[in-house]
Design goal:
78% of the residues lie in helices and 0% in strands. With 183 residues, the protein is an all-alpha fold. The chain folds into two domains: 34 residues, no CATH class; 146 residues. Bound molecules: 2-acetamido-2-deoxy-beta-D-glucopyranose. 2-acetamido-2-deoxy-beta-D-glucopyranose (NAG) binds next to helix 2 and helix 4.
Length: 183
């Protein structure tokens, strides 16, 4: 389709570059916007996981159920904020139109860091509280994450493939590994 258009412009005597460059700029802006919003997302997630960590640190490993329930209540607002942030990112990614030509390594790297941050924090939560008390707040977070990854994968070719093994670990950690949420 694109090739046909370009041929058409060339044949019609248009300067292909004058047509092509605004488009290229737009796509470049889209990928920059995604990069920037992912970096912002990482920072915002870290603000929440830092709070979660400081709540969890004084808690004994495998805390007794009543304690675990109480701590789970304390970290629930942060888990909900993370789920919201991921939801918003999914929507940003859905709106973007990208072109496979542009460098994607930065995006892969940022998404990997985000996933490792979530994985590390989720594992920390599980060590301290177990899955039961937090499951109700972790499931929306994971579903929002899956939505973001799928939306990003549509605009950044190969993203899911690049980060799938970390995402799978995260799904397994919360017992959602067998549901086939990711391709
Ligand atoms: C919170 O703790 C987990 C587990 O130690 C770690 O992976 C994560 O990076 C920590 N996050 C912050 C912001 O300190």
């Amino acid at each position: 389709m694109k090739a046909t258009l370009f041929t058409l412009f060339a044949v019609g005597g248009f300067l292909a570059t004058s047509i092509a460059s605004p488009l290229a700029v737009e796509k470049r802006q889209d990928i920059d916007a995604i990069e920037t919003s992912l970096e912002t997302l990482l920072t915002q997630i870290q603000e929440q996981t830092e709070l979660i960590n400081s709540t969890l640190t004084p808690v004994a490993d495998a805390a007794p159920e009543a304690d675990a329930e109480a701590v789970a209540e304390q970290i629930a607002p942060q888990l909900d904020v993370i789920a919201d942030l991921l939801d918003k990112s999914a929507n940003i990614a859905k709106r973007a139109i990208l072109d496979g030509r542009y460098v994607k390594e930065d995006i892969f790297r940022t998404v990997s860091i985000i996933l490792y941050e979530l994985l590390g924090t989720v594992k920390f939560i599980l060590i301290k509280l177990g899955l039961g008390p937090v499951l109700f707040h972790l499931v929306p977070l994971i579903l929002a994450l899956v939505k973001t990854l799928k939306a990003l994968d549509k605009v950044v070719d190969g993203l899911l493939f690049a980060v799938k093994f970390i995402a799978d670990d995260l799904l397994k950690a919360v017992g959602l590994g067998l549901l086939g949420l990711l391709p």
